[in-house]
Amino acid sequence: PPLGLVELPDSFEGLFHEASALRCTQCLAMPDSRALCLSCGECLCGIETQHGPRAAISHAHACSAGGCLFLLTSSSAVLFVRERRVMLLGSPYRDPHGEVDLGLSRGKPLTLHAPEYAHLARQWLGLSFDETARAEENDFLT
After folding, report:
1. How many helices (H) and strands (E) does the chain have?
2. Geometric angle at alpha carbon 4, from 11 and 118, rounded to 5°
3. Neighbours of 74 (CB within 10 A)
């Protein structure tokens, strides 16, 4: 696995099925959508659940001093959390044509694109994400 991030399976379908058996570590629910922490591997309720992004924000404070990356099983997107800010990033998974399928609408099998995941890890280690998510527009803990 890339330095600083958990190892991901090659197949997104495999990841999806593995994750579907996991409970949220915060509320113990079996949510329809999940967020997998890429730092420690824990499963949380996804941002489409009743918790919204609060579960991810809370976990980020406990796991990584306020900053974390999560893979969203409902879309294959990566969610970046820093303090109370959230930002959706692309996906480390690609279809057979090398394209991202955020939202899983095309129904093609997705495979881990190792160079993209390594790039994500480099961005994570350097905290070099584009800071377009502004706290006042994305403040979920008010």
Report:
1. 3, 7
2. 50
3. 17
Name the residue among 95, 14, 81 with its Cα closest to residue 47.
81
Which pLDDT tens digits describe the chain residue by residue (142 residues)?
566 899 999 999 999 999 999 999 999 999 999 999 999 999 999 999 888 899 999 999 999 888 899 999 999 999 999 888 898 998 999 999 999 988 888 888 999 999 999 999 988 888 776 554 444 344 444 3
Using a cut of 0.85, tell me whether the model's pTM lies above it: yes
CA distances from 22 to 41, 54, 71, 109, 136 (A): 11, 19, 14, 22, 33
Nearest by Cα to 83 from 52, 60, 110: 60
Token pair, residue 108, equals 């093609």
Can you tell me the distance from the alpha carbon of 93 to that of 76, in angstroms, rounded to the nearest whole number?
A: 7
Q: What's the token pair of residue 135?
A: 């706290």
| Dist. CA 128–CA 4, nearest whole Å | 14
Buried b or exposed e, range 3-40, using 16+ CB within 10 angstroms: eebeebeeebeebbeebeebebebeeeebeebbbbbbe
